[in-house]
Every structure is written in C-alpha cells, then in structure tokens.
Write a structure and sequence with these properties.
Layout: H1 3-17, H2 24-32, E1 45-49, E2 52-53, H3 54-59, E3 73-79, E4 81-82, H4 91-106, E5 111-116, E6 120-122, E7 133-135, E8 140-142, H5 144-153, E9 159-161, E10 164-165, E11 168-169, E12 179-186, E13 191-198, E14 204-211, E15 219-225, E16 244-248, E17 251-253, E18 256-263, E19 267-274
Parallel strand pairs: 1-3, 2-4, 3-5, 6-7
Antiparallel strand pairs: 7-8, 9-12, 10-11, 12-13, 13-19, 14-18, 15-16, 15-19, 17-18
Helix pairs in contact: 1-2, 4-5
Amino acid sequence: MDIRLKLVQITHALLQKAGRGGSFPGELALKMDPDFIQKFKMPKIFVLVTGTNGKTTTSNGLRYETYDRRGPKVFAGEYACHGKGKKWNHYETSLYEAAFMTDLERNADIVHMATYAPLFAHIEGWQWRPDMIWYDNTRMFKTTSYYVQQMYATHKGTHALRLTMNGKPVAGQDGQDGLFASAVADKAKHTIIVKVINTSNQSQPVSIRLQDRKSANDVHTLTLCHTEMDEENTLDNPDLIRPVAGKLDAKAVKGSVIIDDIIPAKSFRLYETAE
C-alpha cells in the first residue's frame, strides 16, 4: 500500500476517534504530493459532502468551472447552509443555498446528482440543523430551504445555457454586486428559464438578454423574498415565507429579447419565457 495513503487513513481514523471530521487528511496528502489523487484509479462518480456557513457557500460559486470534463462525475451530497453561530433554518441561509446551486446547474455536465440533507426532523428530537421539513406529532412545515429546492426541481430544464455578465459566469465575482445566476432551456416545454439570486443588501436593476430570439413573449416569475433575514416558517406560521408568482413584459430588440427588471435585495427570482 502507498505510504501516503496509509498515512491519510491513519489520520482519518484518529480524527474519527476524537469525534472530529474535516478535510485535513486530504490536505496532508496533497501537501506531500500535489498529484496524489491522479495516481489512483478514480470511480465514475464520487460524492462531495458539504455543510457550510453562508460565507463559505457563496465563495464556492465557481467550484466546478475548472473540473476536468474527462474525469469522474460528481454527486454533491448532503449540502446545507447555516449562519455563523446560527445553526438553524432561517431565510438568509436558504438564499445562499440558492446561490450555491447556480454552480451545480451551470455545470450539470459534471454534477450529475445533488441532494440537500438532512430532510426530516422532529421539532423535539433532532440531531442536526438545518433540516428541510420539520414536524411534530400532528403538524409539519416546509422551510425556505425546501422552497429553494422546489424552485430548482420544478424548473430544472433539459439543457444548460451559457449565461455571463461582462464575459464571466455570474457567481458573485468582482463587479457583479453579489449576483448569482444560471440559465437552462427546457426542450420539452419549449421555454427558457433564468434563475437570479441577489445576495446584496440593495435592490438592483437587471437586464437579461436572450440572444438569437425574434419575438418577445410573456415572462412568468417566481420570487422568494423576505426582509427579516433570521425569520423562518414555523409550525404556528408555516406560510410566512414562500415563493410568489408574478409576470413581466419582455421586448424584442435587434435579434434578441430583453427582460428588464429590478430584483429586490436578498431575493431569489426565477424567470421563465417561451423560446
């Protein structure tokens, strides 16, 4: 057995005995040999487990852009976000989860599967927070994280589309003012779907240009927005925060269709229009 692999296994076992986890064993291996991973036969799909705070989640908006397209595919498993010192469901962190998911959608050729976790938790008996759906013996409520997942799952499309701002992916990069976005086409429904997350504290004008389109159609929107960042749905108020449907007009301009809008601060808005 490779001595570096053995050292990684021993380090991992010691961390487990101490009741800890983390990426230290892998980081140690890469310090010993930057090409450590390439020297082993890789599976067709490998699992990435993530559980982070908001800053870490949004700073990973370009995680998969540089992945080797010839390498193994990814199952992004067990991801969720909590605020620093706030390990419970609240609106702000669900917004960061939506921002993180633009990278999953943008790189669907690499990320073949993804799942939020944990899924269910009893209000008086849980091991981890946040969780997607909470319940007691007679009632339940869906968290804002649930609605983020629902907005993606019911508008996943069939083909990822290239979407850029100043020539770069929209992933909270310099000059993008806290915006994250991805776009897909649904060939079965003949629609184009654009998801935009505004993580900044100000509302912002956005102008979405759909190239090589001759006619403008109605734009249907779905918006998740709330002003109090620490609030969440509860058993007593299960519908406090949920997506709201709307409608916009688009305009045809020189072979393109333009969707102009002002997206609220700290919000997730989905746009869908016929091709």
